[in-house]
Amino acid sequence: MSVANIPEIYIQSDSREQDLFVYDFKMTSDVVKSKVNLSMNMFSFLQIGKKQVHFADASVMVNKEQSLLIREGNWLWTELLDNDDIYYCKLFFFSEDRLKEFLEKYPIQEGKLKEEVPFFVIENDEYIASYIGTLSRMAAMPSTFNENLLSIKFEEIMLYLIGKYGEKFELYLHSLISKEHSPFKKVIESNAYSNLKLEEIAFLCNMSLSTFKRNFIAEYEMSPGKWLQDKRLQRAKELLQQGDVTASDIYLDFGYSNLPNFSIAFKNKFGISPTEITK
């Protein structure tokens, strides 16, 4: 799986560097789990479809009733059509320098989030729908006028969201310029029960697969593949014992591409098949 450098792939090669950038993203087929290197913070104003994003130690799913503000970094995301024949979102990118300018111009609540998260979920409303519409109409304007207006529109959405969400959003904005990153073990253990592949977890740790494996063995004294399999199978066993799900309900959630492979791995570890657990 190749890495998409965003927003660079959307910017024309002859364009000068931009610290504010709007892009209309559309597609007509599902894109499952893309590796993304996001070099700017980004609003994703979702219009049609669903979007799931895996971060180093968290994940989030939003629909067309919601939008996301995502911090720069290495992420994995999935974009789904959701019973429509098109997926559409308007992406609004802004640099850290532009955010710092805003925070200097409008001094707001400083502090630290109780729990550091790389995203902020925005509930779409009439104001945001109107705001997205004005961004669309700006595309036909002359470039110089467009740049000046875009600066105003950036301040507008920031001030509106501060008014809507208050201290919670203010603290999140300050967290975007924090250089703290999730510790290695936190990333591993946050994804222990996910369906992410080894190379995808390495990507979220900003490491090559070989470097990730070396660090993992040094930390856990076990290969990452064996450790993750044991963790996920143990969790699967617990869920099956509760009696609310069957093996066919959960095998994908724990990283298995088909039910037979899950059943074989389960029986090799516990000596009984998943179906025997639920009887």
UniProtKB/TrEMBL annotation:
GO molecular function: DNA-binding transcription factor activity; sequence-specific DNA binding
All copies of domain HTH araC/xylS-type, residue ranges: 182-279
Keyword annotations of the record: DNA-binding, Transcription, Transcription regulation
Superkingdom classification of source: Bacteria
Keyword DNA-binding (UniProt): yes
UniProt name for this protein: AraC-like DNA-binding protein
